Amino acid sequence: MLDTSTQPTGPVTQVTGPNGPSRRRRRRDAKVAGQVPRHLRAHLTAYLMITPMVVLLGIFVIWPLVYAFYLSFFEMSFYKDAEFVGFDFYKFVLTDPEFYESLLVGLKLALMVVPTVLVLALLLASFLATLSKRVAAFMKTTVYVPAVVSSVVAAIIFVFIYQDEGFANWFIGLFGHGPVAWLNTATTALPAVAIPAIWLGFGVSTLIMLAGILDIPDSYFESAKLDGANFWQRTRYITIPSLRNVILFLLVSGLTLTIQEFQLPLVMTNGGPVNATNTPNLYIFNSFRDATPYATSYSLTAALLLFLVIGTISIVIFRVVSSEKSSDA
Amino acid sequence: MNRSWYAPRRLLTYLLVAGIAVTALFPLAWMAISGFKSQTEVLRTPFQFFPDVWQLDNYRLILADPAFVRAMVITFAGAVIFTVASLAVNSMAAYAFARLEFAGKQLWWLVCITPMFVPAMAILLTSFVVVSKLGMLDTLAVLIIPGVAASAQMFFLRQFYLNMPAAVEEAALIDGATRWQIFLQIFVPQSLGPFVVVGIASFLGYWNSYVWPVLVVSNPDLTQIMQYLATFRSARGNEWGMLMAGSTLAALPTILLVLIFQRYIVNGVRLAGIK
After folding, report:
1. C-alpha span between A18 and A38 (Å, rounded)
2. SS3 readout for B207-268
3. DSSP of B43-78
4. Which helix (H) or strand (E) holds A304?
5. pLDDT digits (tens, 9 = 90+) for B86-139
């Protein structure tokens, strides 16, 4: 504290007027050293409070991000110095069929997972809203429990369920269907990965929707009931329109998160069979681990391009959601 | 509404409640039950839900593996340190951004909130370069420190602090309390609810992490629990009983956490203010 009081830092001089700093410094010098004026001490406290956050994010997020952009303009090699190649890697990524193929896989996965989660969450939340307090509390915990299970454990459980003699084949056998090699068949592998993703994701969506439903005034539902509206009509004309923003938020955040999913396919299939479950991030992650520097630069660039798209979408959702809240109040 | 209509409806409700609960929890129950089956029973034809003989061997064997126990202990210790450090760093910044005015606040806010939009994959490789240049590879620190500052959690806590009434704070200032005293003695004690919510998120994030440990840790003494399970699966994938027992034990702390703090978590969704 003593040190900073004798050397005003940049931001401190910014707030004072053109003649301010010198006058203030004179006055402080005249005083007994060690006394920091109260208004400066408030700044100092604030800086001390944000310093750990700023330093950590700077070292472990912002610098790696800047560095990643920097590296994406160079071709690295074991044998010679890195060579500046401009936008070459961006061109490679954007003309690489495998990259688009992986995007398509990610998109397909998202289209399997997100609508299912939304419908499930809407139905469950509507049902939970009708329950008595005690039963509702039990159900809220129950649907939330799967959400805390790790992707690795979920992947292991479902690989077990998909074994030849496993639960999934027993279950379809009840309907007279023969056993399926779920994770080794190109057409079933992606849906088989989608199911644990749905299982991990539906709980949080349900709780968020429930919070939204509980905010809808009871009078809406009651007058609809008096008018003889059934459950589907109430859902169609009251619940869904009132939850428009919640649903939008869950839809877009669900899509961006699911497109980025890669831990489930990493543990369950490692992208196979024939790339059927090779999501964009899994494709990128496996190129990272590929020891050739070329693959490293390539995947780095692919990750950045993905980030630009997804980051933009996330910022837009964030804006929509926070502006909605302020207009709500 | 007459009674004859009411009673079957109630029964239907309870059947539905039971059905949903059983379906939602089935994968976990299936994992735990399979842990009690012997190697010959765990995958058998004809299919059978419950074992003929409930045996504890799988649980006993996995607990006798020092690598498993060490992974559980070291991951738990890491998760606790990580959670405490996260709460300290993020809540301090949240308080400053919610309650204090300082030069360049807008700029620092941008610096602290932008990382929320950066997906882990975009910086995975360069983060690895950074931690290896810092000589952090294969330490407990590399597992803990890089993730401690979390923009989303800071944002969540700041929302909470913005809504705290100003009167108490002003009274304390008049009484000559410093901002640190106000933060530590007024704001922190009132933050139990939000602290539990973000604390659980931190704990889960650390306990469940897999990709980062795989990249930065190769010392067997530091193997994290998810790393242990994934390695077990690739090396001894046919020992399903033991793998299920290990997965059950690895999932247990997170599930217990939810059960202990269920009240806060359910409220947390409302606190987050997404509506």
Report:
1. 20
2. HCCCHHHHHHCCCHHHCCHHHHHHHHHHHCCCCHHHHHHHHHHHHHHHHHHHHHCHHHHHHH
3. S-SS--SS-SS---HHHHHHHH-HHHHHHHHHHHHH
4. helix A293-328
5. 999 999 999 999 999 999 999 999 999 999 888 889 999 899 999 999 999 999
- The closest CB to that of B226, out of A145, A152, A170, belongs to A152
Question: Using CB atoms, which residue from A49, A148, A160 is nearest to B93?
Answer: A49
Domains and CATH numbers, chain A: 2-71 (no CATH), 91-328 (1.10.3720.10)
Per the CB < 8 Å rule, is B180 touching A45? Answer: yes
Per residue in A210-245, pLDDT (tens digit) is 988 988 898 998 899 899 888 889 989 999 998 988
Contacts of A138 in chain B (CB under 8 A): 17, 21
B165 in helix, strand or coil? coil
pLDDT bucket at B46, cuts 50 / 70 / 90: confident
Which residues in chain B have their CB less than 8 angstroms from residue A54's CB? 93, 108, 111-112
Residue among B159, B249, B258 at smallest CA distance from B201: B258
Q: By C-alpha distance, which of B29, B66, B36 is closest to B51?
A: B36
- ipTM reported for the complex surpasses 0.95: no
Number of H helices and number of E strands within chain A? Answer: 18, 2
Residues 48-87 of B with CB under 8 A from A: none
A83 DSSP β-pair partners: A75
Smallest CA–CA distance from B114 into chain A, residue? A62
Domains and CATH numbers, chain B: 66-235 (1.10.3720.10)
- pTM exceeding 0.80: yes
Round to whole Å and give the CA distance between A307 and A299. Answer: 12
Q: What angle do CA B253, B259, B263 make, to 5 degrees?
A: 135
Which member of B25, B116, B121 has the closest CB to residue A260? B121
Q: How much of chain A exceeds pLDDT 70, in percent?
A: 84
